[in-house]
């Protein structure tokens, strides 16, 4: 919403895995995190209190955008390729993790026309984040449901809806580093050109996958703002951090779990391969 006409934004959330924390996130006009240099400048100004207090007449008004979810869903479906999804007959299992993704998924899934089984859809304000153990247990449970429902795959969103994890059609968890390679393979195989933005911590197998399909890797630092910088360049077709964060450049240059989910459905439908088949054809990384 910030990237659609605002000068910036502020988001309040908890640190992943630390439920008693409070993070105040400042967002620039592109809807992306501030750069590290901008964050340091902001910290310095705040610590030194080098700012003038506003007079009563200078205090602005609060405006609450209407139909935010409908606007978001409409924009997403206009920008991401959803050809063939409605007629595909794909069945997917979606775990909203009682987070913010559950607010937009009902409308989105209805407009996509996909056969989806949604679990944990309600918003639970008492669980703003989750531990690694809770996340793992949720993925194991998701795998069991995917297998019993004979679904094409399963996805699990994090509580804030920025990141997602994958389970293949056999109910097996696809670890985050492999999930990045799976999506990279799908996107690169379909596009056959362009660049993908990946942090330098990513396995060099990603470079092999990209080169095989005629695409190039643009290595970035591990800072999210560096990924978003490359993500908004014209020839960028994909981005990811290897920790469940994916960038869908045709829609947004920042991490968006819902956009990545929609793109994944379309890619799986058009490629006519299962996630386990795609995972199996990607080389394994070995560390000595």
TrEMBL record:
UniProt key word Membrane: no
Keyword Transmembrane: no
Protein name: Mannose-1-phosphate guanyltransferase
InterPro entries reported in the protein's UniProt record: A-D-PHexomutase_a/b/a-I/II/III, A-D-PHexomutase_a/b/a-II, A-D-PHexomutase_a/b/a-III
Alpha-D-phosphohexomutase alpha/beta/alpha domain boundaries: 71-171, 179-279
SUPFAM superfamilies on file: Phosphoglucomutase, first 3 domains
GO BP: carbohydrate metabolic process
Cofactor: Mg(2+)
Pfam families, per database record: PGM_PMM_II, PGM_PMM_III
Taxon lineage: Bacteria, Bacillati, Actinomycetota, Actinomycetes, Kitasatosporales
Gene3D superfamilies: Alpha-D-Glucose-1,6-Bisphosphate, subunit A, domain 3
């Amino acid at each position: 919403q910030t990237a659609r006409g605002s000068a910036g934004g502020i988001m309040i959330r908890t640190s992943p895995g630390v439920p008693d924390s409070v993070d105040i996130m400042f967002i620039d006009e592109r809807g992306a995190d501030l750069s590290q240099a901008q964050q340091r400048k902001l910290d310095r100004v705040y610590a030194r209190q080098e700012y003038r207090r506003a007079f009563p007449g200078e205090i602005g008004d609060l405006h609450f955008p209407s139909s935010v979810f409908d606007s978001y869903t409409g924009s997403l479906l206009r920008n991401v390729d959803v050809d063939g999804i409605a007629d595909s007959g794909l069945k997917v299992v979606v775990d909203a993790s009682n987070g913010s993704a559950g607010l937009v998924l009902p409308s989105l899934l209805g407009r996509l026309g996909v056969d989806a089984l949604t679990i944990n859809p309600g918003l639970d304000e008492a669980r703003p984040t989750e531990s690694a153990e809770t996340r793992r247990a949720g993925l194991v449970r998701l795998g069991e449901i995917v297998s019993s429902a004979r679904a094409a795959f399963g996805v699990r969103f994090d509580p804030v809806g920025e990141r997602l994890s994958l389970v293949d059609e056999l109910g097996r968890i696809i670890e985050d580093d492999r999930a990045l390679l799976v999506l990279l393979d799908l996107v690169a195989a379909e596009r056959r050109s362009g660049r993908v933005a990946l942090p330098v911590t990513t396995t060099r197998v990603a470079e092999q996958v990209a080169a095989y399909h005629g695409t190039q890797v643009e290595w970035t630092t591990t800072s999210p703002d560096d990924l978003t910088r490359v993500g908004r360049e014209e020839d960028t077709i994909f981005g990811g951090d290897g920790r469940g964060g994916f960038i869908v450049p045709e829609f947004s240059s920042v991490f968006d779990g819902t956009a990545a989910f929609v793109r994944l459905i379309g890619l799986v439908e058009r490629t006519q391969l299962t996630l386990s088949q795609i995972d199996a054809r990607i080389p394994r990384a070995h560390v000595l």
